[in-house]
User: Which sequence fits this backbone?
């Protein structure tokens, strides 16, 4: 198959390529759904992983981004991003087949200590492919439709994730309940299917056209230093690093908390995840349109506060003795997190693409990924260590009313190993948002203006005025108190 780039792409070539990129996205989403999220954590817990190992598994996908230097060297050496992406994607997906075959062919050999190094190679190859892919997409996708296109692609991927995750969760819970001895085999088959579908997805990439782009032949470290000398891009790095650290010190342990502390099955966990995904699916196109119209920075400034409020709300999960109030609170949290994450993740990707000069796109984006990878990888490791430290420690706050005839105690909040992480994440997120104010983006509009327009849009389309209005106003008051206290 011819993987050489083309000097000129016609409008028809671009349209065909954009459809193929969506096809690859669906294949990749199938692969990551089967081998990531709650499922990889559940498998790790089944293998006896401790908190530090769980944190390491959560850190691996971002930790390996530090090796995107390899992608820069390869692109500069061969000037063929499509070939690099396809080859590295194949190398990334083969280890999944190996993990899948282990419990079927050598069940006694499979340990968490063996799985982690294999996962490292899987994520490493994927990171190299991803860096090359980002630069490729920078040149392929028209900038004026960048937000709308990736919002559409993400909505398809999230819809697939929701349906597939629910089917898998119900199946795994059934196997765990009736055939517990076969649970590890089920994970093995999931990894095999993931590897096969992932390899199939590389054929879409191989058929996607690539516009020719030549990188200058200069010292690679001088190239990496160039984005760091760009004041505005450096400010973006500061914010992005602080934000991913705040998020990843808490988010990887949501599933662990629900499984180990609350005793919820995968069906409940995936059901809640689907609530988050559905809210994301219904709002991501709106976020994409608003990002293109007003700016990515403004969308982040709206979504980040909402996510922080969700982290605070996690501290109140589990304080009720009955299951249904906890599930109700978890459902609300996941609903709001889906809305917030849709805008934040889309805009973080797009603002990096937008601020990166076309000629140095891979250098800027790889530098961004490498820098943020350090903080994104350290966060879950720190979270695992902190969770171990807070094991056996807790902070309990009650309110008591006493009268001559009766006494009533209201259980307000109780923090323990996981809840402490959620609170730390919220506080660090407040610091990160202060750094966002210093980033400049062409065409940015004041947040309050966009909130007012977005509120009207959501009222007409989703009937969710409360979500984007009252909660954001509450955050504004919280932020003003935080600024007076610490800044």
Assistant:
């Amino acid at each position: 198959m011819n993987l050489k780039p083309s000097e000129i792409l016609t409008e028809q070539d671009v349209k065909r390529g954009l459809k193929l990129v969506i096809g690859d996205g669906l294949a990749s989403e199938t692969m990551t759904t089967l081998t990531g999220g709650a499922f990889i954590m559940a498998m790790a817990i089944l293998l006896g992983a401790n908190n530090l190992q769980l944190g390491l598994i959560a850190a691996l996908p971002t930790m390996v981004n530090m090796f995107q230097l390899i992608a820069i060297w390869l692109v500069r050496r061969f000037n063929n991003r499509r070939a690099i992406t396809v080859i590295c994607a194949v190398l990334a997906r083969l280890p999944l087949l190996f993990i899948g075959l282990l419990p079927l062919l050598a069940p006694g050999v499979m340990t968490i200590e063996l799985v982690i190094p294999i996962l490292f190679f899987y994520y490493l190859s994927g990171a190299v492919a991803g860096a090359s892919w980002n630069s490729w997409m920078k040149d392929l996708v028209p900038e004026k439709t960048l937000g709308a296109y990736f919002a559409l692609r993400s909505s398809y991927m999230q819809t697939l994730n929701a349906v597939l995750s629910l089917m898998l969760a119900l199946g795994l819970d059934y196997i765990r309940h009736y055939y517990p001895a076969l649970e590890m085999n089920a994970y093995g088959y999931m990894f095999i299917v993931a590897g096969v579908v992932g390899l199939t997805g590389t054929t879409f990439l191989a058929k996607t056209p690539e516009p020719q782009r030549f990188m200058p032949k200069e010292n690679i470290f001088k190239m990496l230093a160039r984005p760091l000398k760009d004041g505005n891009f450096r400010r973006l790095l500061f914010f992005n690093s602080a934000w991913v650290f705040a998020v990843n010190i808490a988010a990887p342990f949501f599933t662990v908390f629900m499984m180990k502390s609350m005793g919820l099955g995968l069906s409940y966990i995936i059901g809640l995840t689907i609530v988050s995904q559905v809210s994301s699916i219904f709002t991501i196109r709106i976020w994409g349109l608003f990002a293109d119209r007003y700016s990515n920075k403004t969308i982040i400034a709206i979504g980040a506060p909402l996510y922080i409020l969700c982290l605070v709300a996690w501290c109140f999960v589990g304080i009720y003795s009955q299951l249904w109030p906890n599930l109700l609170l978890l459902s609300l949290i996941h609903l709001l997190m889906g809305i917030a994450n849709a805008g934040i993740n889309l805009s973080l990707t797009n603002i990096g693409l937008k601020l990166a000069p076309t000629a140095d796109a891979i250098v800027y984006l790889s530098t961004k990924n490498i820098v943020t990878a350090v903080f994104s990888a350290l966060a879950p490791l720190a979270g695992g260590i902190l969770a171990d430290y807070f094991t056996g420690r807790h902070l309990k706050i009650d309110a008591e009313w006493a009268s001559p005839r009766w006494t009533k105690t209201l259980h307000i909040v109780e923090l323990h190993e996981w809840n402490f992480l959620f609170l730390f994440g919220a506080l660090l997120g407040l610091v990160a948002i202060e750094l966002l104010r210093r980033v400049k983006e062409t065409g940015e509009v004041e947040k309050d203006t966009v909130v007012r327009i977005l509120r009207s849009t959501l009222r007409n389309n989703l009937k969710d005025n409360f979500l984007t209005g009252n909660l954001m106003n509450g955050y504004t008051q919280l932020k003003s108190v935080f600024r007076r206290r610490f800044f």
